[in-house]
Known about the structure:
Distance between the termini: 45 Å
CATH superfamily of the domain at 33-249: Ribonuclease Z/Hydroxyacylglutathione hydrolase-like
CATH topology of the domain at 33-249: Metallo-beta-lactamase, Chain A
Strand order of the largest sheet: 1-2-3-4-5-6-7
Helix content: 25-40%
Bound molecules: zinc ion
Number of helices: 10
Structural class: alpha/beta
Strand content: 15-25%
Largest sheet: 7 strands, mixed
Mean pLDDT: 90
Number of strands: 12
CATH architecture of the domain at 33-249: 4-Layer Sandwich
Amino acid sequence: MKRTLVTCTLALALAAPAAAQAPRAPVARAGDVATRGLAERDFPRARQLAPGVYAYEALRGADPGGKMTTVSLIVVTNDGVLVADGQGNVAQTKEMVDWIARTTPQPIRYVVVASDHGDHTAGNAAFPAGVTFLATPASVRAMAAAAGGAPARLDTVVGKRTLALGGTTIDVLDLGRAHTGGDLSVHLPRERVLFLSEAYLHWVFPAMRSAYPREWVATLKKAEAMDATWYVPGHGFVDDAATLKRDLPAYRDALERVIAEAARLHAAGVPCASRDACEAVAAGNWGDLKEWTLFAGQAPIAVRRVYDEIEGKLPPRAP
Length: 319
Ligand SMILES: [Zn+2]
């Protein structure tokens, strides 16, 4: 009976207006290295987005189903360097710190914790002593509860923090809860660069372990309204500016499709007790989302998280 219900409402999962406007070759719609025809030796790599502004991509280790990149933003000014997000372990963050030292004599002064997840923070010990970390109160709490603890030199960001660093204006923004619940973005108004960290996973299935699904959609709408030139993701490839900008609404559309399909399954009473026992994944109509990087591992987690949001089980926003 449940299966019949599921099949009859297929249209809901197929409604994908933004994606439909931007058809592209299947090979481009992937966040993992092998599907893109790239090799591990191609990484780490850095792309200059504007003078002194770089997106640095290194491979995230140990992903079943293909390796993908973790992206850090590096802003070099005449008065020091700001980095948004580290890499996933000390060796890889050290490699990035060394890359920065080869690129500029300026010291790293700030590290923005745009995502507090371990694949962006577990290497933070490699940053030089004396850097100041910027994070939301929610991310400070998350880091304090994790193995490495919260960094010693820490400034909390509530709402917005503007840094004027060597003539470069850097806005550190809380655009709303998204992937972690402590999400920050980094906006360079003059260079028109917006680093969205894990709020934007470029052709990577919306991972929701600690997400706030509906708030995440609202956060992305705010980002789209900012009309930057560069929209930089936290995972997935840093393609050219036009591609990343075009793919952002397609990503939000994917997020909305996951939420809508999970909500439909919830209303139909299809169970999803846990990530290991989620009948709703097999029963769902996921369309092309099944081909997105990390679908198999992340779909049950996402469905369970949407169920939790519907059931009022997610924590309200704390100050
Ligand atoms: Zn991550």
